[in-house]
Design brief:
two-stranded antiparallel ribbon, alpha+beta, binds magnesium ion, about 30% helix
């Protein structure tokens, strides 16, 4: 059996007049994340972790921002595509653990929905997926509430 680890990171700044999407879940807030797509940094970190684990580069390689096809798309489209890459390489998810770093809004009421959303998209039982939230304790740009960052680590297994 082959076991692979992958890690991913992403961050996006806040902008007014956009929905705040995290893990494919819309979180009620007056600001959203700005990006070429919907700015869902949690999904982007998960995608990079999955691609890294199977040696398939990163999101920039698969979904270049120069490609108009990906402008404004909902990030679950990326996750669906990355899940296909993982499956095509013969891997399945061992587990996924992610952390969202945000000063605001309070994310704990939404973590279960994010976990459910990611597991549904990846087609795995919910207990293989973990989503946690942390504040940056006022430190740096994230601590000043200028945006949100996410970290993800995955284990992939291939019989
Ligand atoms: Mg991103």
């Amino acid at each position: 059996m082959s076991v692979r680890i992958g890690q991913g990171f992403d961050a996006h700044r806040f902008g007014l007049g956009r929905p705040l999407m995290l893990g494919g879940v819309q979180v009620p807030f007056e600001k959203g994340l700005v990006g070429h797509s919907d700015g869902d940094c949690l999904i982007h970190a998960v995608c990079d972790a999955l691609l890294g684990a199977c040696g398939e580069g990163d999101m920039g390689r698969h979904f270049p921002s120069s490609d108009e096809r990906w402008r404004g798309v909902e990030s679950h489209v990326f996750l669906d595509e990355v899940a296909r890459v993982v499956t095509a390489r013969g891997f399945s998810l061992g587990n996924l653990d992610a952390t969202v770093i945000a000063e605001e809004p309070r994310l704990s009421p939404h973590l279960a929905a994010m976990r459910e959303s990611l597991s549904r998209r990846l087609g795995v039982p919910v207990d293989l997926v973990s989503v946690k939230a942390k504040s940056a304790d006022g430190l740096g740009a994230i601590g000043r509430g200028e945006g949100i960052a996410a970290l993800a680590v995955v284990l992939l297994v291939r019989p």
